[in-house]
Design goal:
It is a single chain. The chain is mostly helical and 548 residues long. It has a domain of 135 residues. The chain is 55% helix and 3% strand. Strands 1-2 form a two-stranded antiparallel sheet. It has a two-stranded parallel ribbon with strand order 3-6. β1 and β2 form a beta hairpin. It binds L-captopril (X8Z) and zinc ion. The site of zinc ion has 3 residues, from α15.
């Protein structure tokens, strides 16, 4: 997880920064006399010094809070929630205070490029700001930790039988072809988010108040200001991208809807309406590779089933990660440190609650890299491992950068790197690994391309709509009573997907997606799904002229 949007403890940093500010205000004038008149405007040198101190403090304070977040995600208990909330409270307070102090340099002329850029990052790079009021900061942090805990511990407990955790419900959605079973798993998981709605609404209120204190219209404007362009123009850029790739999605949607109609009947999948969201093989209908068998082009075969191969060859969680590491090693990257293997979580523990949603961590922003993931031996998790390792290698490659430059050009870049490697998990690569005896005939490529489309093209509108929803929520275009309706309006508009039935009045379906209670911006994944193909194309080894 990257430090800036995360936790950081306060300790003496604010006192120090404040002391420096004070010293700057009362510095002797050039003639040696203490300043009596109105405080002088700060200079470019003072701005650079402020940034340097802020970076030093944020870097120093990040580690402990990152460890706290790690412990919470690995052991969700009453106490770890409380401790993580406290750490987050101190971190947010520090970030907000630094951001508001940074505004003092708004009018300074002659700033060097880095200072200017870093001041902007300090003022706008807070994912979940809080108001300066200490009680509200504490409330904000408690809400964040509680919602993370609720999601991580979430389970559906049917009237009869054992409770089912998200992973088990996802397996049903992926594998079952019985509409009733699919519906129960789909609706069951959404019982977890019902009690989040009020908490989420309050979180939005507090975050918006924090954003307003920092000079932003709302939190959405703040999020949109991280793309090296006028934040007001960013949505238009996304529209342009969507208009370019949307027709590809439409074609896929049309084909899949027709095939699902054949499978389940047009009374369940109407030929001219949205697709019910529980039939697409994924809990959020965000990628559809699990229904390949239902929609595969008849004249072709995928050629192989990577899940079956991995299982057949006796792969386990660790050897899947080792294989991912070997891909990076083959590109010339240094192996992961021993601590990565000692400290990462690869397998869902049987005896405690953890946040299973995959994530990559750089605890000390140097070499303490880890991933946390409840790995199942299947193709999807094999690719996700490459995704997570992409974060870790990116983090390590940037460790010598100054604190504020350790992130990526924008958040879409970080999400795209590991995925770019996954695009090279081709039959040829699998053969090199000894996973495929021989590369299937090129006549099977249509099947492979369909699999790729189900994973990558299907994702695009989902990647876009999550923040379209959040931006409207942050802008106050709907209140809590309208949250769910707006969610489904956007699901239909972008994805052509509908809820499989009437939703309860108090439903809060956005909360059933990790990144909403976890407060992780989502447009990054839409961008990454474009960028990774650009990276892939541009990283291809050029064929020398005359070689073909
Ligand atoms: O959340 C993730 C990663 C961690 S950054 C596993 N992804 C999004 C999701 O699961 O919804 C990767 C693709 C989209
Ligand atoms: Zn990621």
């Amino acid at each position: 997880m990257s430090k800036l949007p995360h936790l950081i403890t306060l300790c003496c940093s604010l006192a120090l920064l404040a002391a420096c500010e004070q010293a700057a205000k009362t510095a002797p004038a050039a003639n040696g006399a203490a300043e009596q008149s109105a405080p002088q405007a700060p200079t470019a040198e003072e701005a650079a010094a402020f940034v340097a101190r802020a970076e030093e403090k944020l870097a120093q304070l990040g580690q402990e809070s990152e460890r706290m977040a790690w412990v919470l995600s690995n052991f969700i208990t009453f106490d770890t929630e409380l401790l993580a909330a406290r750490a987050s409270e101190q971190y947010t307070a520090a970030q907000v205070e630094i951001a508001s102090q940074a505004a003092r340099f708004n009018e300074v002329q002659g700033l060097d490029y880095d200072t200017h850029r870093k001041l902007h990052m300090l003022k706008s790079g807070i994912i979940i700001p809080a108001p300066l009021d200490a009680a509200k900061t504490a409330e904000q942090s408690e809400i964040g930790a509680r919602m993370s805990g609720m999601y991580g511990k979430g389970a559906y407990c049917p009237d009869e039988g054992d409770c089912l955790a998200l992973g088990e419900l996802e397996d049903i959605i992926a594998e079952s072809r019985k509409p009733d079973e699919l519906l129960e798993a789909w609706e069951g998981w959404r019982t977890v988010s019902l009690p989040m709605k009020d908490l989420y609404a309050r979180q939005v209120e507090l975050a918006n108040e924090g954003a307003a204190e920092l000079g932003f219209d709302d939190l959405g404007t703040m999020w949109r200001s991280a793309y090296d362009m006028d934040p007001a123009e960013f949505p238009g850029e996304l529209d342009t991208l969507w208009n370019q790739v949307g027709p590809l999605y439409e074609a896929l949607h049309c084909h899949v809807r027709a095939k699902l109609g054949e499978q389940y009947g047009t009374d369940i999948v109407p030929a001219d309406g949205p697709i019910p969201a529980h039939l697409l093989g994924n809990m959020w209908a965000q990628s559809w590779e699990n229904i390949y068998d239902l929609v595969a082009p008849p004249e072709t075969a995928a050629g192989y089933d990577l899940t079956q191969i991995l299982q057949g060859k006796g792969y386990d969680a660790r050897s899947m990660v080792e294989t991912g590491e070997a891909f990076f090693s083959s590109l010339g990257f240094e192996q992961l440190p021993e601590t990565f293997w000692e400290r990462s979580l690869f397998v869902k523990p049987a005896d405690r609650d953890v946040v299973c949603h995959a994530s990559a961590w750089d605890i000390d922003e140097q070499d303490d890299l880890r991933i946390k993931m409840c790995i199942d031996v299947n193709a999807e998790d094999f690719k996700t491992i490459h995704h997570e390792l992409g974060h870790n290698y990116y983090q390590r490659a940037y460790k010598e950068q100054s604190f504020l430059y350790r992130g990526s050009a924008n958040d879409g870049f970080h999400e795209a790197v590991g995925d770019t490697l996954s695009l090279s998990i081709t039959p040829e690569y699998l053969q090199k690994l000894g996973l495929l005896e021989e590369v299937p005939d090129a006549s099977g490529d249509l099947g492979l391309l369909m699999q790729q489309a189900l994973e990558k093209i299907a994702f695009l509108p989902f990647g876009l709509m999550v923040d379209q929803w959040r931006w409207k929520v942050f802008a106050g275009e709907v209140g809590p009573d309208g949250y769910n309706d707006l969610w489904w309006q956007l699901r239909e508009k972008y994805q052509g997907v509908a809820a499989p039935g009437e939703r309860p009045d108090d439903a809060f379906d956005p909360g059933a997606k990790y990144h909403v209670p976890g407060n992780t911006p989502y447009t990054r994944y839409f961008l990454a799904h474009i960028l990774q193909f650009q990276f892939h194309r541009d990283s291809a080894v050029p064929v020398p002229p005359g070689a073909v």
